[in-house]
From TrEMBL:
Residues 516-525 have a biased composition (Basic and acidic residues). It comes from Caenorhabditis latens. The keyword Transmembrane helix applies. This is Major facilitator superfamily (MFS) profile domain-containing protein. Residues 68-497 form the Major facilitator superfamily (MFS) profile domain.
Amino acid sequence: MPHTPPPNKKLSRATSLDSPPEKTIFRIDTVDLDLPSTTNGPISTAVDEQSQDDEYSAPSVLFPSMRLMLAAMLCCCFITLSISSSNLAVALICMTSCPVHGYGGTLEWQSQQEGLVLAAQNAGSLVMIVTGMWADRLNGKWMVFVGLLLCCIGNLMLPLLASKSFWFAVLARISIGASDACLMPAVNSLITRWFPQAERPAAIGLISGGRQIGTLFILPTAGYLCTRKDVLDGWPAIFYLSAVISVLVTVFWIPFGADKPAKQICISSREKEFIETRIACESIGKRTDRTRRVPYGAMFRSKPLWACIFALICHEYPLVIMLQFLPNYMRDVLEFAPTKNGIIAALPILCLFLSKTFSSSLSSYLTTNMHLDKTFVCKCFNATASAGLAICIFLVPYFNKESAFLAVVCLCGAMIFAGLHTPGVITAMVQIAPAFSGIITGWSFFAVAWFSIGNKILTKYIVQSGSVTEWGMVFRVSALVAALPVVVFTVWGSADREWWAAPSSKCSVASFHRPSIRDRSREMSRATSSTSLGQQSRVSSSR
């Protein structure tokens, strides 16, 4: 019966759970395999080394690996999702009438109805509790395809049917939320199957950066289309454009996307072997394997897992304000026109994208080249992110339209600190249990969706007239929530693989403990007996 480490025991870095250290990111290093030599002598050794060098030679700089291509395609998928999620933030300004400022559209929606439309997207994300449970068993390529298809349907439904009934707009946003529920668990599951441990922080930063790229594109574009009534009557053009982008990304994803390296049509055998050998120690297994049991009991009792979920909720809570209500705040308090509103609202998003991209690469460098502990790096990034985000958000309400520049500076600073969460809690969620990353993602973002629904309804309940006092209350509550992970994740968080996520095979689990003296004596006796038998057979044959 193999020994199972207790829940509070930290696994050693020297165990077979960690993949070999990487020297480069998104490149193909030589695969070090201890294979027995079939021939002897210096000539055969030189030939083997030469053939191995030829087979595993470094690829060109312009196209390092197929992993980088897959990361770029997944980034485009998140661009599509971000465009579909953020387009309503600006479109809502010119869709509905605004009696306070005297501009807007023809839809007579109350403030509570607007809150329900915005919260409907998070209601659709609640499906993630189901998609997350199956993300590690279903084909990730087709889960991404379903997510892109739902984006297209939601973007077409809203401009065509919103004027007929308010509930059609709710259904359209639920479709966008369901798209997120398909994409997020599938992408995290694909990351564990395509990228070795050392590359995952950089891969997560590149892939999830698509959210900010999409928002950077759609906010100023939507602000411009709002003023162009001659282009498909203004605001409907925003959603038609989003639908077209969804179709284009889907067309490229179908032929080039793949569930795992072995199913990719363009990947080389060298890179496929490189990936498979690097992730083999993680016992991710096949999706069709129904014999693998999910350790639900151990997961529910895991303090690092709950610390990750708590920190993610506190991280996403203020981001809902920054991403969904920022144009409303700039309209009500800073009094920006729609076009200027879209451009200025994109600046904090740009800061978020640059921050998470740089910090993710820095995290990979610290763990790969500086050999720092993964948990230490994650905790440092996450604590800095939570503290800085809370301080910057807390300062925003102290500025009005006369000091709008300082308000925008604080908003940009808040997003710079928010980007440090990517090498923090976001990376830790993928690292603590790679084999169950889809399930963990489903649980985490299911909880995030519930709190986001409450956040949006609460914000619309507080902000009735758009006064500085009302928005100040919203930002201060967000600052308090953002500061909580400084204590919680720093004390209980972890980026090391949990004991319940360890390989289940006997040969892998045996590496957790040192063999006993009896086991070693048995192995020595077997080796001695086999050697003596070989010598006797050679003597008898010579006779």
